[in-house]
Design a protein that fits this description.
By secondary structure, the chain is an all-alpha fold. The chain has one domain. It is built from 3 helices and no strands.
């Protein structure tokens, strides 16, 4: 069991590391939000699941298990809200961005 816990912890740490690198390397706020959201949903999910596997059906393990769907729901909604708010506020996309789904559909404050 400890090898499975270590595997999930390793996967979680790997995804969180990639998310942190993405926050530093991505060119604009929209790409950074995407990197941060993937980091939270995949990395933190794996760490919480490893915590549950290690502690089992104790109070701590159940809280970790409850936290997994909460993370999936809240992190994606928060990232979408931040991206939409940034767009409405007028923060420009990266100059090499290929697609702008909000163009013409959302009023941009100037």
């Amino acid at each position: 069991m400890s090898s499975i816990v270590g595997l999930f912890l390793g996967i979680g740490i790997f995804f969180n590391l990639l998310g942190c690198i993405g926050l530093l390397r991505m060119p604009d706020v929209y790409n950074r939000l995407q990197a941060a959201t993937k980091c939270v949903t995949l990395g933190t999910w794996s760490i919480l699941f490893a915590h549950f596997l290690h502690f089992g059906f104790t109070a701590s393990g159940i809280k970790a298990l409850i936290g997994i769907p909460l993370l999936f729901l809240t992190s994606t909604v928060a990232a979408h809200s931040l991206a939409r708010g940034s767009y409405i506020f007028g923060i420009k996309l990266w100059k090499k961005s290929v697609k702008d789904d909000y163009k013409g559909k959302v009023k941009v404050k100037k």
